[in-house]
Amino acid sequence: MRVKIGNQIKEFRTVWMESHIVKMIDQPKLPHRFEIYSSFDHKQTAEAIRTMIVRGAPAIGATAGFGMAQACMEAPVTGFDDYVRKASETLKNTRPTAYNLFYAIDRVLKSIEKGISVKEKREIAIKEANSIADEDVEKCKNIGVYGSKLIKDGDSVLTHCNAGALATVDYGTALAPMRFAHYGGKKIFVFVDETRPRCQGARLTAWEMLQEGIDHAVIVDNAAGHYMRNGEIDICIVGSDRTTAKGDVANKIGTYEKAVIAKENKIPFYVALPTTTIDMSIKYGKDIPIEERDEEEVTHMWGFSQGELKKIRIVPKGSHVKNPAFDVTPAKYVTGLITEKGIIKPNEIKRLFD
């Protein structure tokens, strides 16, 4: 992704590996500070996933793959398999909704079965983890190319949460079509839902739009219906943390209501995702585990004041909070799925795997 640092523009991936160290953009620091976080072992990598230093299903998957490679490098020769198995459970217990997490961990586990010696298994794990990350970049690029054809010159696009480069290894899912429409010379405008409670839209999507020079405005989550009804939004594109075999989509909380309102106002609602986010073992959205996060994400807010990040309480002490991180949008509200293999209807998922 393009990042402006001083008077220079540099290219970064969201997550990568150097030797045994997993490097990632420290997302809670954005948009006020751009810093790289270094994780030195698989437990630290798991904690980075859990605390959302890295977030977004594809980025979580790539990070977990690197975490598995770390575990293979850390594991003793005697008891190697048991150590790696326990590490996989530690990583799997971080974010239950994101399917890429499980896909990447299981893929690395399966790959090391080909190795005979511990040395071979370590080499295979590193290679597989890097392949998962590289493939994600290519898939998101293709999503951008296919999805950009849906966006006309002069269109206004609504997106929810952050499904940009920061949610993947690069390019993004929902934001990739906007990037490529912009690269192709189309003049577009992006409505950025703030996406409470962690405000990934206001903090991260807006930051990405600024880096790319794409015209946009941040809106409160409750304003999307107003702009749809007034005819100011032409198309909605969001991401997915897990999509079922029947096309139901789990995405950041608030996605469902946007899809319902879009259908009521006859606005196309697309979901952009790599096929690694599709869980063919689950048919319906009701069976997707929904992560319930800490109350403090709602009771408090972060802000930047006098050069420092500060947290303040906004909810009365004694008031309890319910904080589901995701909701499920039934397939009937989804116009189409933008994948690296093309754009399909939700009921056509099976043919992606034929």
Order of strands, main sheet, comes to 8-7-6-9-12-17-18
Mean pLDDT, to the nearest integer, reads 97
DSSP helical segment count: 10
Beta strand count: 18
Radius of gyration: 20 Å
Fold-level CATH name of the largest domain:
Rossmann fold
Strand content: 15-25%
Overall number of structural domains: 2
Which series of helices and strands comes N to C?
A: EEEEEHHHHHEHEHEHEEEHEEHEEEEE
What is the CATH domain class of the largest domain? Alpha Beta
Q: Which homologous superfamily in CATH is the superfamily of the largest domain?
A: Translation initiation factor eif-2b, domain 2
Can you walk through the features of this model?
There is one protein chain. The chain has a seven-stranded mixed beta sheet with strand order 8-7-6-9-12-17-18. The protein contains ten helices and 18 strands. The mean pLDDT is 97. It starts with a strand and ends in a 10-residue tail after the last strand. By secondary structure, it is an alpha/beta fold. It folds into two domains: 139 residues, Four Helix Bundle (Hemerythrin (Met), subunit A); 204 residues, Rossmann fold. Strand 6, helix 6 and strand 7 form a beta-alpha-beta unit. 36% of the residues lie in helices and 21% in strands.
